[in-house]
Protein: 3-isopropylmalate dehydrogenase
Amino acid sequence: MKIALIPGDGIGPEVTYESRRVLNAIGEKFGHSFSFTEVPAGGNAIDSFGHPLPQESLDECKKSDAVLLGAVGGPKWDDLPGELRPEQALLGLRKGLGVFANLRPAVLFSQLKGASALKEEIIGDGIDILVVRELTGGIYFGPKTLKEVPGGYEATDTEVYNTGEIKRIARVAFNAAMKRNKRLCSVDKANILESSRLWRKVVIEVAKEYPEVELSHMYVDNCAMQLIRYPRQFDVIVTSNMFGDILSDEASMLTGSLGMLPSASLGSSTLGLYEPIHGTAPDIAGQNKANPLASILSTAMMLRYSFNLEKEAQLIEDAVRGVLEDGYRTGDIMETGKKLVGTKEMGDLVIAKLG
Ligand code: NAD
Ligand code: IPM
Ligand code: MN
Structure:
Protein backbone atom coordinates (compact mmCIF):
# COMPACT_ATOMS: atom_id res chain seq x y z
CA MET A 1 0.00 0.00 0.00
CA LYS A 2 1.59 3.15 -1.30
CA ILE A 3 1.04 6.23 0.82
CA ALA A 4 1.96 9.77 -0.19
CA LEU A 5 2.93 11.56 3.00
CA ILE A 6 2.62 15.33 3.05
CA PRO A 7 3.97 16.53 6.41
CA GLY A 8 3.29 20.19 5.53
CA ASP A 9 4.07 23.05 7.90
CA GLY A 10 3.90 23.95 11.61
CA ILE A 11 2.72 20.96 13.65
CA GLY A 12 2.00 19.01 10.44
CA PRO A 13 5.36 17.17 10.45
CA GLU A 14 5.08 16.48 14.20
CA VAL A 15 1.66 14.82 14.06
CA THR A 16 2.19 12.94 10.79
CA TYR A 17 5.45 11.52 12.17
CA GLU A 18 3.43 9.81 14.91
CA SER A 19 0.84 8.61 12.40
CA ARG A 20 3.50 7.08 10.24
CA ARG A 21 4.86 5.20 13.26
CA VAL A 22 1.36 3.98 14.09
CA LEU A 23 0.86 2.71 10.53
CA ASN A 24 4.23 0.96 10.62
CA ALA A 25 3.25 -0.71 13.89
CA ILE A 26 -0.02 -1.87 12.32
CA GLY A 27 1.92 -3.15 9.32
CA GLU A 28 4.24 -5.18 11.53
CA LYS A 29 1.43 -6.60 13.60
CA PHE A 30 -0.74 -7.67 10.67
CA GLY A 31 1.88 -8.33 8.02
CA HIS A 32 0.89 -5.40 5.77
CA SER A 33 3.46 -3.33 4.01
CA PHE A 34 2.96 0.41 3.89
CA SER A 35 5.44 2.40 1.84
CA PHE A 36 5.73 6.15 2.34
CA THR A 37 6.84 8.75 -0.15
CA GLU A 38 7.36 12.20 1.34
CA VAL A 39 5.77 14.85 -0.82
CA PRO A 40 6.40 18.59 -0.48
CA ALA A 41 3.36 20.84 -0.39
CA GLY A 42 2.39 24.05 1.38
CA GLY A 43 4.74 26.67 2.77
CA ASN A 44 7.80 24.40 2.64
CA ALA A 45 7.16 23.80 -1.08
CA ILE A 46 6.93 27.56 -1.65
CA ASP A 47 10.31 27.96 0.05
CA SER A 48 11.96 25.12 -1.90
CA PHE A 49 10.22 25.26 -5.28
CA GLY A 50 8.41 28.60 -5.43
CA HIS A 51 5.00 26.93 -5.63
CA PRO A 52 2.64 25.54 -2.93
CA LEU A 53 1.81 22.42 -4.96
CA PRO A 54 4.47 21.50 -7.52
CA GLN A 55 3.09 19.37 -10.36
CA GLU A 56 5.37 16.47 -9.28
CA SER A 57 3.75 16.52 -5.85
CA LEU A 58 0.25 16.22 -7.27
CA ASP A 59 1.41 13.50 -9.69
CA GLU A 60 2.97 11.51 -6.85
CA CYS A 61 -0.30 11.71 -4.87
CA LYS A 62 -2.30 10.56 -7.90
CA LYS A 63 -0.02 7.53 -8.24
CA SER A 64 -0.52 6.56 -4.59
CA ASP A 65 -3.20 4.45 -2.90
CA ALA A 66 -3.81 7.09 -0.24
CA VAL A 67 -2.54 10.50 0.86
CA LEU A 68 -1.80 11.41 4.48
CA LEU A 69 -1.52 15.14 5.08
CA GLY A 70 -0.51 17.09 8.19
CA ALA A 71 -1.49 20.71 7.62
CA VAL A 72 -0.23 23.62 5.57
CA GLY A 73 0.17 27.35 6.09
CA GLY A 74 1.55 29.78 8.60
CA PRO A 75 2.29 33.44 9.27
CA LYS A 76 5.47 33.33 7.19
CA TRP A 77 3.43 33.03 4.00
CA ASP A 78 0.38 35.10 4.95
CA ASP A 79 1.25 38.07 2.76
CA LEU A 80 1.61 36.16 -0.49
CA PRO A 81 -1.03 36.67 -3.17
CA GLY A 82 -3.96 34.22 -2.89
CA GLU A 83 -2.95 31.81 -5.63
CA LEU A 84 0.56 31.42 -4.18
CA ARG A 85 -0.41 30.82 -0.55
CA PRO A 86 0.26 27.45 1.11
CA GLU A 87 -3.47 26.80 1.53
CA GLN A 88 -3.73 26.68 -2.25
CA ALA A 89 -1.93 23.32 -2.07
CA LEU A 90 -4.88 21.86 -0.22
CA LEU A 91 -7.40 23.16 -2.71
CA GLY A 92 -5.25 21.90 -5.58
CA LEU A 93 -4.95 18.46 -3.98
CA ARG A 94 -8.65 18.16 -3.22
CA LYS A 95 -9.65 19.24 -6.70
CA GLY A 96 -6.83 17.33 -8.39
CA LEU A 97 -7.69 14.09 -6.61
CA GLY A 98 -11.41 14.67 -7.12
CA VAL A 99 -12.16 14.09 -3.44
CA PHE A 100 -15.48 15.90 -3.22
CA ALA A 101 -16.77 14.32 0.00
CA ASN A 102 -15.14 15.25 3.27
CA LEU A 103 -16.19 13.11 6.24
CA ARG A 104 -15.56 14.78 9.58
CA PRO A 105 -16.72 12.62 12.48
CA ALA A 106 -17.19 14.53 15.75
CA VAL A 107 -17.12 11.73 18.28
CA LEU A 108 -16.73 12.32 21.99
CA PHE A 109 -14.66 9.61 23.65
CA SER A 110 -16.44 9.04 26.96
CA GLN A 111 -13.11 9.53 28.76
CA LEU A 112 -13.08 13.14 27.53
CA LYS A 113 -16.50 14.20 28.83
CA GLY A 114 -14.79 16.60 31.20
CA ALA A 115 -12.75 18.14 28.37
CA SER A 116 -15.79 18.92 26.24
CA ALA A 117 -16.74 22.58 26.09
CA LEU A 118 -20.28 21.56 27.06
CA LYS A 119 -21.81 20.69 30.42
CA GLU A 120 -22.26 16.99 31.25
CA GLU A 121 -26.06 17.24 31.18
CA ILE A 122 -25.99 18.56 27.62
CA ILE A 123 -23.57 15.86 26.52
CA GLY A 124 -25.73 13.13 28.05
CA ASP A 125 -24.79 9.68 26.73
CA GLY A 126 -22.29 11.15 24.32
CA ILE A 127 -21.82 12.87 21.02
CA ASP A 128 -21.44 11.16 17.67
CA ILE A 129 -22.08 13.46 14.73
CA LEU A 130 -20.82 12.97 11.20
CA VAL A 131 -20.34 16.18 9.25
CA VAL A 132 -20.32 15.53 5.50
CA ARG A 133 -18.74 18.57 3.92
CA GLU A 134 -18.79 19.20 0.17
CA LEU A 135 -15.12 19.76 -0.66
CA THR A 136 -14.48 20.66 -4.29
CA GLY A 137 -17.12 23.28 -5.00
CA GLY A 138 -18.85 26.29 -3.52
CA ILE A 139 -17.27 29.61 -2.65
CA TYR A 140 -13.80 28.07 -2.36
CA PHE A 141 -13.70 27.41 -6.08
CA GLY A 142 -16.11 29.93 -7.64
CA PRO A 143 -14.83 32.93 -9.62
CA LYS A 144 -12.97 35.58 -7.64
CA THR A 145 -12.20 39.14 -8.52
CA LEU A 146 -10.18 41.96 -7.08
CA LYS A 147 -10.26 45.35 -8.73
CA GLU A 148 -9.53 48.93 -7.97
CA VAL A 149 -12.55 51.17 -7.46
CA PRO A 150 -12.82 54.80 -6.38
CA GLY A 151 -11.81 54.92 -2.73
CA GLY A 152 -10.03 51.56 -2.68
CA TYR A 153 -10.69 48.05 -3.96
CA GLU A 154 -13.61 45.73 -4.54
CA ALA A 155 -13.32 41.97 -4.06
CA THR A 156 -15.71 39.14 -4.79
CA ASP A 157 -15.90 35.40 -4.13
CA THR A 158 -18.69 33.40 -5.70
CA GLU A 159 -20.64 30.49 -4.27
CA VAL A 160 -21.37 28.13 -7.18
CA TYR A 161 -23.11 24.75 -7.05
CA ASN A 162 -24.73 22.70 -9.78
CA THR A 163 -27.22 19.84 -9.58
CA GLY A 164 -24.61 17.14 -10.17
CA GLU A 165 -22.32 18.37 -7.40
CA ILE A 166 -25.17 18.53 -4.92
CA LYS A 167 -26.55 15.13 -5.90
CA ARG A 168 -23.27 13.30 -5.40
CA ILE A 169 -22.54 14.80 -1.99
CA ALA A 170 -26.15 14.22 -0.91
CA ARG A 171 -25.85 10.54 -1.86
CA VAL A 172 -22.67 10.18 0.20
CA ALA A 173 -24.51 11.69 3.16
CA PHE A 174 -27.66 9.57 2.74
CA ASN A 175 -25.53 6.41 2.40
CA ALA A 176 -23.67 7.33 5.58
CA ALA A 177 -26.96 7.96 7.38
CA MET A 178 -28.23 4.53 6.27
CA LYS A 179 -25.29 2.95 8.09
CA ARG A 180 -25.92 5.04 11.21
CA ASN A 181 -29.13 6.30 12.82
CA LYS A 182 -30.85 7.19 9.56
CA ARG A 183 -31.23 10.87 10.30
CA LEU A 184 -29.81 13.49 7.96
CA CYS A 185 -29.84 17.24 8.49
CA SER A 186 -29.03 19.34 5.44
CA VAL A 187 -27.63 22.71 6.43
CA ASP A 188 -27.92 25.71 4.14
CA LYS A 189 -28.86 29.38 3.96
CA ALA A 190 -31.83 28.92 1.65
CA ASN A 191 -33.57 31.99 3.05
CA ILE A 192 -30.90 34.14 1.39
CA LEU A 193 -28.75 32.27 -1.11
CA GLU A 194 -29.90 31.09 -4.52
CA SER A 195 -27.24 28.35 -4.41
CA SER A 196 -28.73 27.13 -1.13
CA ARG A 197 -32.22 27.02 -2.62
CA LEU A 198 -30.90 24.77 -5.36
CA TRP A 199 -29.04 22.74 -2.73
CA ARG A 200 -32.23 22.16 -0.75
CA LYS A 201 -34.27 21.28 -3.83
CA VAL A 202 -31.73 18.70 -5.00
CA VAL A 203 -31.34 17.17 -1.54
CA ILE A 204 -35.12 16.72 -1.35
CA GLU A 205 -35.03 15.07 -4.77
CA VAL A 206 -32.25 12.66 -3.75
CA ALA A 207 -34.14 11.84 -0.53
CA LYS A 208 -36.69 9.92 -2.64
CA GLU A 209 -33.96 7.27 -3.16
CA TYR A 210 -33.67 6.88 0.63
CA PRO A 211 -37.19 6.54 2.06
CA GLU A 212 -35.83 5.16 5.34
CA VAL A 213 -33.77 8.26 6.11
CA GLU A 214 -35.46 11.04 8.02
CA LEU A 215 -34.38 14.26 6.31
CA SER A 216 -34.49 17.68 7.94
CA HIS A 217 -33.24 21.10 6.87
CA MET A 218 -31.68 23.80 8.99
CA TYR A 219 -30.31 27.26 8.34
CA VAL A 220 -26.62 27.44 9.11
CA ASP A 221 -26.93 30.14 11.77
CA ASN A 222 -29.48 28.05 13.65
CA CYS A 223 -27.30 24.96 13.22
CA ALA A 224 -24.32 26.73 14.78
CA MET A 225 -26.52 27.44 17.77
CA GLN A 226 -28.20 23.99 17.92
CA LEU A 227 -24.80 22.25 17.97
CA ILE A 228 -24.16 23.90 21.33
CA ARG A 229 -27.73 23.82 22.66
CA TYR A 230 -28.60 20.20 21.95
CA PRO A 231 -25.97 18.38 19.90
CA ARG A 232 -27.52 14.95 20.41
CA GLN A 233 -30.29 15.87 17.94
CA PHE A 234 -27.78 15.39 15.09
CA ASP A 235 -26.77 12.16 13.39
CA VAL A 236 -25.40 13.15 9.95
CA ILE A 237 -25.06 16.75 8.77
CA VAL A 238 -24.53 17.49 5.08
CA THR A 239 -23.49 20.94 4.00
CA SER A 240 -21.51 23.10 1.62
CA ASN A 241 -17.77 23.60 1.59
CA MET A 242 -17.57 26.75 3.70
CA PHE A 243 -20.40 25.97 6.11
CA GLY A 244 -18.87 22.53 6.68
CA ASP A 245 -15.48 24.07 7.39
CA ILE A 246 -16.92 26.31 10.07
CA LEU A 247 -19.40 23.89 11.65
CA SER A 248 -16.82 21.10 11.95
CA ASP A 249 -14.38 23.30 13.89
CA GLU A 250 -17.29 24.19 16.15
CA ALA A 251 -18.33 20.56 16.54
CA SER A 252 -14.75 19.59 17.45
CA MET A 253 -15.01 21.48 20.71
CA LEU A 254 -17.90 19.27 21.77
CA THR A 255 -15.40 16.39 21.67
CA GLY A 256 -12.80 18.19 23.76
CA SER A 257 -10.49 19.72 21.18
CA LEU A 258 -9.83 20.56 17.58
CA GLY A 259 -6.90 18.19 18.05
CA MET A 260 -9.27 15.22 18.23
CA LEU A 261 -11.03 15.47 14.84
CA PRO A 262 -9.84 13.37 11.92
CA SER A 263 -11.13 13.51 8.38
CA ALA A 264 -11.35 11.50 5.19
CA SER A 265 -11.79 13.11 1.79
CA LEU A 266 -13.19 10.70 -0.76
CA GLY A 267 -14.13 10.73 -4.41
CA SER A 268 -15.22 8.07 -6.84
CA SER A 269 -12.16 5.80 -6.40
CA THR A 270 -10.53 4.33 -3.28
CA LEU A 271 -7.77 6.95 -3.39
CA GLY A 272 -8.53 9.14 -0.41
CA LEU A 273 -6.91 12.12 1.30
CA TYR A 274 -6.66 11.84 5.07
CA GLU A 275 -5.94 14.75 7.38
CA PRO A 276 -6.86 16.16 10.75
CA ILE A 277 -9.31 19.04 10.48
CA HIS A 278 -6.99 21.37 12.38
CA GLY A 279 -4.33 23.61 10.92
CA THR A 280 -0.63 24.14 11.50
CA ALA A 281 -1.09 25.64 14.99
CA PRO A 282 1.82 28.11 14.73
CA ASP A 283 1.39 29.00 18.41
CA ILE A 284 2.55 25.54 19.55
CA ALA A 285 4.58 24.33 16.54
CA GLY A 286 7.96 22.71 17.23
CA GLN A 287 7.27 22.33 20.96
CA ASN A 288 6.13 18.70 21.13
CA LYS A 289 2.77 20.01 22.40
CA ALA A 290 0.43 19.18 19.53
CA ASN A 291 -2.19 16.49 19.99
CA PRO A 292 -1.43 13.82 17.38
CA LEU A 293 -4.70 11.96 17.92
CA ALA A 294 -6.62 13.71 15.12
CA SER A 295 -3.91 12.65 12.70
CA ILE A 296 -3.65 9.14 14.17
CA LEU A 297 -7.43 8.75 13.95
CA SER A 298 -7.18 9.89 10.31
CA THR A 299 -4.95 6.87 9.64
CA ALA A 300 -7.74 4.68 11.02
CA MET A 301 -10.06 6.28 8.47
CA MET A 302 -7.46 5.58 5.76
CA LEU A 303 -7.33 1.91 6.70
CA ARG A 304 -11.13 1.76 6.67
CA TYR A 305 -11.93 3.67 3.48
CA SER A 306 -8.94 3.24 1.19
CA PHE A 307 -7.65 -0.17 2.27
CA ASN A 308 -10.79 -1.86 3.58
CA LEU A 309 -8.93 -2.89 6.76
CA GLU A 310 -11.73 -2.47 9.28
CA LYS A 311 -10.20 -4.60 12.04
CA GLU A 312 -6.95 -2.62 11.89
CA ALA A 313 -8.86 0.69 11.86
CA GLN A 314 -10.79 -0.32 14.95
CA LEU A 315 -7.62 -1.40 16.71
CA ILE A 316 -6.23 2.12 16.31
CA GLU A 317 -9.45 3.66 17.62
CA ASP A 318 -9.44 1.23 20.56
CA ALA A 319 -5.81 2.05 21.29
CA VAL A 320 -6.65 5.77 21.42
CA ARG A 321 -9.54 5.02 23.76
CA GLY A 322 -7.24 2.88 25.91
CA VAL A 323 -4.62 5.60 26.25
CA LEU A 324 -7.30 8.13 27.23
CA GLU A 325 -8.70 5.59 29.70
CA ASP A 326 -5.24 5.33 31.26
CA GLY A 327 -5.43 9.08 31.90
CA TYR A 328 -2.86 10.41 29.41
CA ARG A 329 -3.59 13.81 27.87
CA THR A 330 -1.91 16.38 25.66
CA GLY A 331 -2.33 19.98 26.80
CA ASP A 332 -5.41 20.73 24.69
CA ILE A 333 -7.47 18.01 26.43
CA MET A 334 -5.77 18.22 29.84
CA GLU A 335 -7.84 18.10 33.02
CA THR A 336 -6.75 18.11 36.66
CA GLY A 337 -5.75 14.67 37.88
CA LYS A 338 -4.69 13.52 34.40
CA LYS A 339 -1.17 12.89 33.13
CA LEU A 340 0.19 15.52 30.74
CA VAL A 341 2.22 14.16 27.83
CA GLY A 342 3.70 15.55 24.64
CA THR A 343 3.16 14.67 20.99
CA LYS A 344 5.84 11.96 20.86
CA GLU A 345 4.84 10.37 24.16
CA MET A 346 1.23 10.22 22.99
CA GLY A 347 2.41 8.46 19.84
CA ASP A 348 4.43 5.99 21.95
CA LEU A 349 1.44 5.29 24.18
CA VAL A 350 -0.89 4.58 21.25
CA ILE A 351 1.69 2.26 19.67
CA ALA A 352 2.18 0.41 22.97
CA LYS A 353 -1.60 -0.10 23.19
CA LEU A 354 -1.68 -1.64 19.72
CA GLY A 355 0.15 -4.57 21.31
P1 NAD B 1 -5.30 26.00 13.73
O1 NAD B 1 -6.23 24.85 13.59
O2 NAD B 1 -3.93 25.79 13.23
O3 NAD B 1 -5.19 26.38 15.27
C1 NAD B 1 -6.29 26.89 16.02
C2 NAD B 1 -6.02 26.69 17.52
O4 NAD B 1 -6.13 25.30 17.83
C3 NAD B 1 -4.61 27.09 17.94
O5 NAD B 1 -4.66 27.64 19.23
C4 NAD B 1 -3.85 25.79 17.97
O6 NAD B 1 -2.78 25.74 18.86
C5 NAD B 1 -4.94 24.79 18.36
N1 NAD B 1 -4.68 23.46 17.78
C6 NAD B 1 -4.84 23.10 16.48
N2 NAD B 1 -4.48 21.84 16.30
C7 NAD B 1 -4.06 21.38 17.49
C8 NAD B 1 -3.55 20.13 17.94
N3 NAD B 1 -3.38 19.09 17.13
N4 NAD B 1 -3.21 20.01 19.25
C9 NAD B 1 -3.36 21.04 20.09
N5 NAD B 1 -3.85 22.24 19.72
C10 NAD B 1 -4.18 22.41 18.44
O7 NAD B 1 -5.99 27.23 13.04
P2 NAD B 1 -5.41 28.71 12.71
O8 NAD B 1 -4.55 29.17 13.82
O9 NAD B 1 -6.60 29.49 12.34
O10 NAD B 1 -4.54 28.52 11.40
C11 NAD B 1 -3.12 28.39 11.40
C12 NAD B 1 -2.64 28.07 10.00
O11 NAD B 1 -3.09 26.76 9.60
C13 NAD B 1 -3.18 29.02 8.94
O12 NAD B 1 -2.15 29.26 8.02
C14 NAD B 1 -4.30 28.26 8.28
O13 NAD B 1 -4.55 28.65 6.96
C15 NAD B 1 -3.76 26.86 8.34
N6 NAD B 1 -4.79 25.80 8.31
C16 NAD B 1 -4.45 24.70 7.59
C17 NAD B 1 -5.32 23.61 7.59
C18 NAD B 1 -4.93 22.41 6.80
O14 NAD B 1 -3.86 22.37 6.23
N7 NAD B 1 -5.75 21.38 6.75
C19 NAD B 1 -6.50 23.66 8.34
C20 NAD B 1 -6.78 24.82 9.07
C21 NAD B 1 -5.91 25.88 9.06
C1 IPM C 1 -9.61 22.88 6.62
C2 IPM C 1 -8.88 24.19 6.44
C3 IPM C 1 -8.83 24.54 4.96
C4 IPM C 1 -10.27 24.73 4.49
C5 IPM C 1 -8.00 25.77 4.58
C6 IPM C 1 -6.64 25.76 5.20
C7 IPM C 1 -7.91 25.87 3.10
O1 IPM C 1 -9.47 25.18 7.20
O2 IPM C 1 -9.17 21.87 6.03
O3 IPM C 1 -10.58 22.84 7.35
O4 IPM C 1 -10.86 25.79 4.69
O5 IPM C 1 -10.80 23.79 3.90
MN1 MN D 1 -10.99 24.43 8.56
Remarks:
- The radius of gyration is 20 Å.
- Residues 245, 249, 277 surround manganese (II) ion (ligand 3) (CB under 6 Å).
